[in-house]
Amino acid sequence: MLTAKQLVALLPEIESLAREAGAAIMGYYQNGPEIMTKGDGSPVTAADLASDAIIAPGLAALTPEIPVVSEEGVEAGRIPDISGGSFWLVDPLDGTKEFIGGTGEFTVLIGLIQAGVPALGVLYGPVADELYSGAVPGIAWSVAQGNRRAIQARAIRESGLLTVTSSFRWPSSRLEKFLESLHVGERVRRRSAFKYADVARGAVDLYPAFGMSYEWDSAAGHALVSAAGGSVTLVDGSPLAYGKPQFKNPDLLVVGRR
Fold first, then answer.
1. How close are the terminal C-alpha atoms of the chain, in Å?
2. What pLDDT, in 10s, does the model give residues 197-254?
3. How many Å separate Cα 89 from the centre of its chain?
4. Given a cut of 70, is residue 170 above it in pLDDT?
5. Which of 78, 157, 209, 258 is packed most tightly, with the most Cβ within 10 A?
């Protein structure tokens, strides 16, 4: 298992890998996506596969002892042994529908799990050259246009109105019922994993991540939010486990500092 010092030292390497994958994605984005269909009917593009072909071997070269679980690898039947407790979770192109639709709000996600807990995460949006990274409590960064600054989740107010972010997609009666129980002052809609970054950088108080998601969708953002002082839990407040069967997540709450 990597130490806190090793995790922080590894961050720049993972940031560079995410940027390299993002550059490959942009080549397809600018020239029009080549769209295919996965076994579950969801779309996948040549950009997803090209990004995965950069990240998976890049991580294997950096940390050969740590297995890599990626969305595209699992789809292809490549599921490594993760019983050792440490493994990478990668979504090479989170927000494929946003990529196809040309919204620009898609991301590269790379997260590291250690002893069941997200320990390092990098989230990169190549269109805006917007990168977020975090490892261990207190080491959380926003890097935009070459400028690096520390970020921190904002404190949840005991009273007053919350700013909540949610997705454009997956309308959910569970979500609407949950929001009715809160004092919501403003609701911001965002796409892709940027919602995790919004909590980590203190732009919003809460992101209820309701609906279908997988561990590679949450790992990088979870690590980032934790590093920035926030938390990611199940709706009842219990911890989110990693390495679950089929890597499926239940409904989650992404929250700023309590």
1. 29
2. 999 999 999 999 998 899 999 999 999 999 999 999 999 999 999 999 999 999 999 9
3. 9
4. no
5. 209
The mean pLDDT value for 37-60 works out to: 84
Q: Domains in the chain and their CATH numbers? A: 4-150 (3.30.540.10), 162-255 (3.40.190.80)
- Tens of pLDDT, residue by residue over 106-140, are 999 999 999 999 999 999 999 999 999 999 899 99
Three-class secondary structure of residue 83 per DSSP: coil
Distance CA 224, CA 198 (A): 10
Whole-angstrom distance, CA of residue 51 vs CA of residue 17:
10
CA 173, CA 248: separation in Å to the nearest integer?
20
Q: What is the C-alpha to C-alpha distance for residues 70 and 92, in angstroms, rounded to an integer?
A: 7
Which amino acid is located at 189 in the chain? R
Cβ(103)–Cβ(97) below 8 Å: no
CA 152 from chain centre, in angstroms, equals: 17
CA nearest to 110, candidates 147, 149, 83, 71: 71
Residue 29 has pLDDT above 60, yes or no: yes
Q: Mapping DSSP to helix (H, G, I), strand (E, B) and coil, where does residue 118 land?
A: strand
Q: How far apart are CA 256 and CA 258, in angstroms?
A: 6
